Structure prediction request, 340 residues.
Amino acid sequence: MKEQLNSILEDAKKQLESAQTQSETDEIRVRFLGKKGRLTEILRGMGKLSPEERKATGQMANSVRDEIETMLAERFEAVKAAAKEAQFRKERIDVTEPGKVEELGVAHPLTITMEEISRVFRNMGYSIVEGPEVETVFNNFDALNAGPDHPARDMTDTFYITEDVLLRTQTSPVQVRTLLKEKPPIKVISPGRVFRCDTPDATHSPMFHQVEGLLVDEGVTMADLKGTLDSFAKQLFGTSTKTKFRPHHFPFTEPSAEMDVSCFKCGGKGCRVCKGSGWIEILGCGMVHPSVLKVGGLDTEKYTGFAFGLGVERVAMLKYGVDDIRLFYENDMRFIEQFK
Ligand code: DAH
Prediction:
């Protein structure tokens, strides 16, 4: 029995030396001291011994158990500390490592241009409103004084969804929506997408962007229109910019005009950008036609207003010297990243 106890102690010592984890250590405890453990087995068999033998063996068994318990406790602490240390090492943060730069995207040149235009008008007290890209034929044409025979209603120009619904060909229907919803003084701009059945080439795209403007109040005159748009041109293209208003025709304005700005590239001498004329056409505008004001139920003797609409792509192409409109829609990062 003595030998057995000694070999139990030796085995326990050996096994504990190679135990690497807390659970391995615990398995060893069960193997030796558990209910069916080797030492427990011995203690159980002691009933068969004589009283003297029982006393001596009992004492020895107790001291073996104490020793194993002490070893177990020590080993347990050691592997626990090692595990903690390993964890620390794994989670260690190297504060001297260089930081990772999160790359932000860049704004699209059309977004930049639209924001610049919006900022100028916001600073003049205009609110920004939005309208849907899928519009009624009524809002896009009829209410804007473009009756059924107007050439812009031709199927070749317009994407029709049904007989009464289309993809808006201009942002002007937002004028109608605004007049139906708000009472003067009205002072809004509306940037957004528009659609036309055009074959893409360097200057055409079936989808492009416009910014619409509408101001309605008592006593608004053509002089207000000219002053506002001249100030806008100076803020967008530079303070030395000159403007020129040429008579034109739009169904929803009377009188109508197109505004040219003096070429910001050559200052008016004539160059490639202005095609030698010194002037660049930039937007359409005019005094809101009385029949449009009537859609909003306004007294046309009391209220007058002006409206304007400009192409965002055209402004961006001129400002940035882009010679093909399709570049805006290809999303080639080498192109887009040049405008940040
Ligand atoms: N909607 C016109 C177009 O797409 C642009 C325009 C011209 C808008 C004159 C206006 C305006 O508000 O007064 O060609």
